[in-house]
Amino acid sequence: MTIEDTSRLASLGWDAQWVAAFQGAGDTLESRDAGRIRPARVVAEHRQRYDVVHADGDQSAVLAGRVRHEAGAREQLPAVGDWVGLSSASPDGTAIVHFVVPRRGAFVRKAAGDTTAAQVVAANVDIALIATALPGDLSTRRLERYLTLAWEGGTTPVVVLTKADLSDDVDSAILEARMSAPGADVVAVSTVTGVGLDLLSQWLMPGRTAVLLGSSGVGKSTLVNALLGVDHQRTSAVGEDGRGRHTTTHRELVRLADGALLIDTPGMRELQLWSADAGLGSAFSDLEEVATGCRFRDCSHDGEPECAVREAVEQGQLAAERLEHWHQLRRELAHLARKQDVLAAAEARARTRSLMRGLRSHLRDKYRGT
Fold first, then answer.
1. What b/e sequence results for 225-238 when a residue is b if at least 16 CB atoms lie within 10 Å of its CB, and e otherwise?
2. Backbone phi, psi, residue 81, to 5°
3. What predicted TM-score, i.e. pTM, was given to this entire model?
4. Total domain count for the chain?
5. Which residue in 238, 206, 265, 347 sits closest to 80, CA to CA?
6. Is 359 among the domain residues?
7. Are residues 118 and 178 located together in one domain of the fold?
8. Rounded distance, CA 80 to CA 41, Å?
């Protein structure tokens, strides 16, 4: 495998750890393939192809048949932000993706709809910028969901209150967000006045990758344009209710002038959890801290005697709505786990049936020839 211009790769977040991970991932390739594989980063994902960037520039890429065949689940396929092993074997110049380098972390949610599958929204991100618009879009319950998935994916969440120029009481909004986001920074910004944009620079640093998340119409595309200094993303006019209209149609990694990397995402209409036990504990760290005073170590805070959490709610030290949402998210995760167990069992039965059919076919062919 080849690693050419490390300086250009470094501008995409490449470092010594990625070198080792890339070489380890390539060890599974046949020797005739390994020598022509180079590292590249996925910057956009489309239906049947990807836009990637490598040491020599930008290129379109498709998956090798083996990669798609061996992927056990949707989340194992490349996503925006992933590093991949690439070759230019196609006659038309389209690159071929031979493997995905193991991720350091990702923002992962349950795929929308009834499908029991994970969707990788953004891979290998360091910072999750969770955007919510003022004055009317701030939902602490939705914010807690974003925070849970951000912490679970190994990213540092930052709450970005957009359209601050439309709010008459920004300080109260910041305080409300902080109450629901322990351990996360909160910053209010306005692309109209420029307020707060300079504060984002402490998280948007050269070589680091951030993902911008939020519902439709909260001003993500406008914020991306402000950070880029150019009209890169198409935006729509703000309606009378202060909300914009959805404009971003796909996830895309862009490079800012200061060297930071930013993944813009379409607005999310639903945000269901996926494997987020650890993230839930981080998002509700205030509740977890109070819970250390419960009589029982495995207290569910739902009827046990000497429950410190319920006592904190009764004394006004912890919001009752926050505890109830913690219970709701726990039930959601438990329900998802049961569905995953049922799905895994069904897949195991299908594999067994396939093996048995193959075995019976083999035995019939064997004894027919005797």
1. bbbbeeeebebeeb
2. 105, -15
3. 0.83
4. 3
5. 265
6. yes
7. yes
8. 8
91 vs 100, higher pLDDT:
100
What CA–CA distance (Å, rounded) separates 2 from 363? Answer: 47
Paired with 325 in beta bridges are none
Final residue of a domain: which of 55, 78, 100? Answer: 100
Do both 116 and 229 map to the same domain? yes
What pLDDT does 233 receive? 52
What is residue 90's DSSP assignment? Answer: S
Say yes or no: 188 and 258 in one domain.
yes
Asked if residue 152 lies in contact with residue 275, where contact means CB atoms within 8 angstroms, the answer is yes
Residues 81 and 117 in one domain: no
Q: Say what the pLDDT of residue 80 is.
A: 97
Count of beta carbons in the 10 Å neighbourhood of residue 260: 22
Are residues 240 and 311 part of one domain?
no
Q: Residue 189 and residue 324: Cα distance in Å, rounded?
A: 30
With beta carbons less than 8 A apart as the criterion, state whether 186 and 172 touch. no
Is 325 part of any domain?
A: yes
Residue from 34, 358, 14 nearest 209 by CA? 14
Position 342 scores a pLDDT of: 60
Helices (H), ranges, the chain = 6-10, 16-26, 31-34, 65-70, 140-152, 170-180, 220-228, 277-283, 285-291, 308-314, 320-368
Give the bridge partners for 212, in sequence order: 129, 264
When computed from its CA atoms, the radius of gyration of the chain, rounded to whole angstroms, is 24
Rounded-to-integer distance, Cα 5 and Cα 53, Å: 12
Do residue 217 and residue 124 come from a single domain? Answer: yes
Whose tokens are 């995953």? That residue is 340
Task: Give the β-pairing of 185-188 and 156-162.
Answer: parallel
Q: How far apart are the first and last CA of the chain?
A: 49
Residues spanned by the domain of 166: 106-264
Tokens of 328: 């709701």
Domain check: are 189 and 304 in the same one?
no
**CATH number, residue 352:** 1.10.40.50
For residues 148 and 260, membership in a common domain is answered with: yes
